[in-house]
Give the backbone structure.
Amino acid sequence: MATTIVMGILSSHILQSVLRRLGAESRVYLPHRDEGYGLGRAAVHHFSRSGTDLLLTVDNGINARAAVHLAARLGIEVIVIDHHRIQDNADTLAVWSDEFCGAGLAVLFAVGLALRAGSPARMVEQLIEGTSIYGAIASIADCVPLSGRTRVLTQLGLAPLSRTKHRGLQELLRASCGDPDSPDSEDVAFRIAPRINAAGRVAHPYAAFEVMAAGSDLERARAAVAHLNQLNAVRRELVQHHFEELREEHRRSGEPQRLLDRADQLSWNNQWLQAEPIYRQAEMLFRQKGDLSRALYAHVSQIIPHAESRSLPGTILELTHDLALPEARDPETQLRILTIRGMIEVNYDARMAQQTWAQVAKLATKQRHWLLASRLPRYNGGRDSVLSAGRPSLGKSESFDRLGRRKVIPR
């Protein structure tokens, strides 16, 4: 199991490649962005039902103590490959270092497996050359410091990139680089990585993994890269569209509340990625005006788009701390913090999430946020996410404000 970004997609390809070489059967699981970040209870139950007995998580899992414990109870052995800061260390075998990105650690793990299996030296050399390409792309995309051993890995990977025999990479280079025969770090950072990330941002990360899975199949590779190009075009249009909306809103009014209303409308329809820069702008303007309560509301609303790169227990702790701040006494801000915390908790601790949703339901009802209250998940072990369902259609004689309170429209 991996993350939905460049790191997780390339790490999964690295591990699947070496396991196949060693004769092991494996399946790649890349979660949709709506499933939340990291190893959660729902995913563990999915693996259990599918007969999984060994689970490798890459670029996540080091803080998934509860999910790892559940996996052990269900007879699933877990190996964690991760580089994120340890806050609630999972009790399992782990390959961890903050020097490398997740894919870099996957390269080291793959080489270690090959050596432990007694693979011939020539095969190990080919494995290092092949997997270091993906480690280099991921290291640049993840903006890890390119120093020490990470710099060596990146140099090893960039050197053979233009000579790759992998059809998917060849087509990706042709689509992304001005000179596909001489790709550099700028090509990786600003052309290759955004295309890979686009799949998880606007569709499903498997669309990017399909490029890696193409192998020597030229037609499959061309089709996969063409699809990825389409998704990247959609991503760019969305970003540009919402940037222009943000600039126009700011030009017309300069009022942060209007920006906040627009961002809430987007997030209500589960468009968190598009809402995030608008929330950021609103937070800045609220702080300039000295409205710390509204600024806090906008600040916590920026967490969801980046949840996949954050520690779940650390984020939950941060939100709990925010609840104790004086500016969180505002009822709407308090409700927002609890709602965001509940969305994070569904992928960390089912009982904790259930308690938070109960608080949200009570506050939403008290503040007459009827639509929000109606969309709270009927608890089913953590699979549902508040604000993830489609927004109900509005009748001709009624509407709702940004927090779901019914507004009567005179006829």
Q: What stands out?
A: The two ends are 54 Å apart (CA to CA). The CA atoms of residues 95 and 386 lie 34 Å apart. Residues 253-408 form one domain.
